[in-house]
Amino acid sequence: MLARLSCSRRRVSSRLSRLGARSYSSSYSWLESHLIDRSMCRDESLASNDLQVMEDVITCEEETLLANEASAQLRRRRYEVNHWDQVIINFKEMETIKWSSEAQQVLARVRALPIIPQDLEYFPAVHVIDLAEEGYIKPHVDSIKFSGQIVAGLNLLSPAVMRFQEENGESRIDLKLPRRSFYCMRGGVRYRYTHEILPGVQTFQGEAIQRTRRISIMIRDVFVPPATSQP
């Protein structure tokens, strides 16, 4: 009964999020969001929209739908101990466009969220990462070969803590990702900060966050080289 009541409240919250999807809210920004610990950040060059996060962007039922369809496509794959670039530990992954019509509608709504720039060209396939409970993602900056101006992801099945560390400085930002939340990084956070998914039990502003198996659905834009001026 408690789970049903919780899902009911989250459905209401998700509907409100969708109703507000037409206008930008500063509460999504790393400068305002209660999901972001910015106490260790001294980087004054970051823009307010360089890191944004939204809660409850889908319902409990939609989370189950996406997780089940992703799991079905990955069921014959084993969890890999190491990634080809040694960034991800204990994971499965795929790029796919194979979703049911219902799941496609959910993903289309996610792609239209206000924290995603609508003037970029996006890959039609999404990148799915199934991270085992004992798995983790090491600090890294995504290559422009695989993503352009943004890195954005939908967090399923488990809460997680994502850490951003300035590559050539001491600033740090911690992001709490509840289930069914969505984040988007760009600008200074995208290019000048590493990001990682921490393993095991983490503490976020005094709260213990137990991460279990996690599925993330990544939305990536196509890298467009800057135009060169003609002599």
UniProtKB/TrEMBL annotation:
Pfam families: 2OG-FeII_Oxy_2 (PF13532). One of its GO terms (biological process) is DNA damage response. InterPro entries: AlkB-like, AlkB-like_sf, ALKBH7-like. It comes from the Eukaryota. Gene3D superfamilies: Alpha-ketoglutarate-dependent dioxygenase AlkB-like. Residues 136-220 form the Alpha-ketoglutarate-dependent dioxygenase AlkB-like domain. One of its GO terms (cellular component) is mitochondrial matrix. PANTHER family: ALPHA-KETOGLUTARATE-DEPENDENT DIOXYGENASE ALKB HOMOLOG 7, MITOCHONDRIAL, SPERMATOGENESIS ASSOCIATED 11-RELATED. This is Alpha-ketoglutarate-dependent dioxygenase AlkB-like domain-containing protein.
